[in-house]
Amino acid sequence: MIKLNWKDVMKNTSISYKYTDATNYKTDHTVIFSGSATDTDLIHLFQSLDDGDGFIPSQVGLLDIQFVLQTHDVKDNRDSEGEYNPFGPEGSDHVWHSILRENVEKTNLDATEARSIQEFVRAVMSSAHNWDVDAAINRLK
Question: What secondary structure, in 3-state letters, does the chain show?
């Protein structure tokens, strides 16, 4: 009789990614991709992230979550015309989000994303070392 470890039959992959602004306010978001990530998938994913954990979610089809934090410092981030500017003199927003290895897990929860984990990894690999920071900054303004 074959004895299976429960984790060996998990059907999907959960990834929680995080945004931390310069003042250490934090928020996170979890997505579940169909399919179980292989060790090779994870190697490719983490090799493709900036400095091993950084990425810009909107450039790989995910939600940029720094907008959740913009309300905490709005009054301090007005430009000379009174418009909100997350990168103003007191601005603490940036475009980088992070995925840590311990926040990637196999799960039996239903997928929340239409793509498979392999398709997501390919998207991150395509963006590797070519993250468009200027375009991401312009989206925040």
Answer: CCCCCHHHHCCEEEEEEEEECCCCCEEEEEEEEECCCCHHHHHHHHHHCECCCEECHHHHCCCCCHHHHHHHHHHHCECCCCCECCCCCCCCCCCCEEEEEEEEEEECCCCCCCCEHHHHHHHHHHHCCCCCHHHHHHHHC
